[in-house]
């Protein structure tokens, strides 16, 4: 809604985006799949999620990613603006796998964290990397503004925060002549379909010997194709 504004992330937003991730992503299948022990080890979950986003801020300020946040009046104190949603994008030219990535390490997996299933982290990376290469790089080359993450605080769902952030990315993609690829879970898929994203394929993740498996929809929106409609 009109009360929502967006802006690039600042270093002081770190705690807010960690809180958004920790409260919103458990509704996304991939998070539950990768961090099945988050309830047993809440201190690890917080510590390593914090570290993960701190690393993301480094690569962002190094020019590799863009993080846009959405703000809205705080429900508990409407005189105050609160960061209620975040979106993380790989700047065009930095979409992995790219052998020319800048000399800043992308966020690491931290397999020592006790809240995760390390084998699943590896399988997840391998599957998404393979799918990125086969479907996204195969179709768009480096002509892509990859959407890595999107999340809104549950108390602020269905107020248009994710839509506003997505529209920002689609506008940028249109201006720069690039596509917007991403992986969607069941919740995200509804949002992206509404904006005309198309499914290019399915990423499947499964650790050998485990019954649990994860499916994600590999989706993309291309302004070039949109114009033809
Ligand atoms: C998916 C998510 C980011 C949407 O955030 P949001 O700020 O509530 O999104 P918006 O208010 O802009 O919703 C836009 C549209 O998406 C669809 N949508 C969003 N949430 C939905 C839900 N729970 N059920 C059905 N459709 C939904 C609707 O079409 C909605 O438009 P409408 O409200 O006019 O019907 C949020 O639910 C979330 O953080 N989920 C957990 C994390 C996650 O799954 N992230 C996406 C990973 S791919």
UniProtKB/TrEMBL annotation:
N-acetyltransferase domain boundaries: 4-221
PROSITE patterns named in the record: GNAT
Pfam families to which the protein is assigned, alphabetical: Acetyltransf_7
Keyword hit for Acyltransferase: yes
UniProt key word Transferase: yes
The entry's keywords: Acyltransferase, Transferase
GO MF term list: acyltransferase activity, transferring groups other than amino-acyl groups
Recorded superkingdom: Eukaryota
Coiled coil: none
Protein name, UniProt field: Acyl-CoA N-acyltransferase
Originating species: Hyaloscypha variabilis (strain UAMH 11265 / GT02V1 / F) (Meliniomyces variabilis)
Lineage: Eukaryota, Fungi, Dikarya, Ascomycota, Pezizomycotina
């Amino acid at each position: 809604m009109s009360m929502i504004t967006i802006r690039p992330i600042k270093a002081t937003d770190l705690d807010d985006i960690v809180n958004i991730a920790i409260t919103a992503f458990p509704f996304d299948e991939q998070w539950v799949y990768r961090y099945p022990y988050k309830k047993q080890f809440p201190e690890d979950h917080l510590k390593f999620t914090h570290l993960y986003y701190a690393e993301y801020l480094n690569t962002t300020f190094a020019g590799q990613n863009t993080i846009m946040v959405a703000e809205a009046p705080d429900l508990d104190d409407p005189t105050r603006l609160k960061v209620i949603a975040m979106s993380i994008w790989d700047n065009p030219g930095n979409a992995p796998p790219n052998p020319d990535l800048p000399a800043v390490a992308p966020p690491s997996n931290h397999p020592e964290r006790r809240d995760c299933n390390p084998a699943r982290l590896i399988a997840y990376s391998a599957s998404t990397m393979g799918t990125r290469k086969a479907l996204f790089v195969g179709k768009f080359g480096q002509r892509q503004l990859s959407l890595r993450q999107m999340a809104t605080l549950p108390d602020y769902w269905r107020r248009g925060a994710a839509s506003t952030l997505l529209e920002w990315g689609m506008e940028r993609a249109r201006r720069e002549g690039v596509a917007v690829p991403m992986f969607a879970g069941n919740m995200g898929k509804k949002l992206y379909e509404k904006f005309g994203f198309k499914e290019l394929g399915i990423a499947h993740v499964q650790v050998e010997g485990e019954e649990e498996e994860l499916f994600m929809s590999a989706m993309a929106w291309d302004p070039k194709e949109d114009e033809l409609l």
